[in-house]
Design a protein that fits this description.
The chain has helices spanning about 20-25, 50-65, 80-90, 105-120, 140-155, 185-190, 210-215, 220-230, 235-240, and strands spanning about 5-10, 70-80, 95, 125-130, 155-160, 165-175, 195. By secondary structure, the protein is α/β, with parallel strands linked by helices. It has a single domain (about 5-245), classed as Spore Coat Polysaccharide Biosynthesis Protein SpsA, Chain A (Alpha-Beta Complex), CATH 3.90.550. It has a 7-stranded mixed sheet, sandwiched between helices. A hairpin with a 6-residue loop joins strand 5 and strand 6 (about 165-175). The longest helix is centred in the middle third of the chain and has 19 residues, at about 105-120. It is globular and about 45 Å long. Keywords: GTP-binding, Nucleotide-binding, Nucleotidyltransferase, Transferase.
Length: about 250
Amino acid sequence: MTGWSIVTPVKPLGQAKSRLRATLPAAVAYFSGPDPLGALEAPDETGDWHAEVALAMALDTVAAVLAADRVDRVVVVTDDPVAAAALGALGAVCVPDTPGSGLNAALRHGASVAALLSRTDRRGARGTATLGADLPALRTAELDVALRTVERLGVRSFVPDAAGTGTTLLAAPGRTPLNPAYGPGSALVHASDGAVDLASGGPEIATRRVGPSLRQDVDTAADLAAARALGLGPRTAALLASTPSVFPAGCAAC
C-alpha cells in the first residue's frame, strides 16, 4: 500500500539557522574525518561552519525520514545547490523554490510537486506532510507512529515543537489540503485552523505519546544540546565531536 509524501524546506545554507548562528560559536576546527553519509567534502578554510551544521542536520533528518516505513517520498524545496546535491544523493527529490515567496509558499509548491509525482506513480498518495530539516535526533519509529495516528484520525494534524509554540510536523491525509501556516506561534494558528494537536493527549488520540525526537527542532545552542541528549544522527554527531569548542566544559546549555 502506498505511503506518505514528506515536504522539507531547506534555506540556502549561508542564510540558514540565524538564531543558531547567534547562540553557537564559530568552530575553530572543521570536520575533516570520515563522512558518515558520504555526501560532501570537508569545507575549506573559507567555509561556513554554521552552514555545515545546517547541512548536517538536514542530512540526518532526511535520512531518518526516508527510512520510515510509511514514507514513500521526500520532496526537498531548496535553492541551495550544495544541499540539493547532498540530499538528492540520499534519495530525496529536490526542486527549486520557484515561488520565492517565503516558507509557506515553498511548502505549498513542494506539496504540488508531490501531488504531481503521485498522480504519475501512485507513490506517496496516503497523504502529504511537512517536516523541518532541523530534527537531527529524529527517530524513524516516532515519525511512523505519528503518521499512523494521522491515518487513523483521518484529519489534518500537527506536532508542536518542544517549546509548544512552533510546528515540526503538519500532516494532511489523502487529498486533504495541507494549508501550512508556519511562522511565529504556528502551533496555535494550525490548531485554530482545525488541525489536531497530536501531542495534546486528548481523548480522540488514544495512542502513544508523540516521541520527543519528533518535537526537538534546533533553533538555538540550547536546542542543539537537547537534541544531543536524545542522540544525534551520524553526520551531526560527527561534526560536533570534531569541534569540542561548540560545547565547552561548564556550558550551561550542555
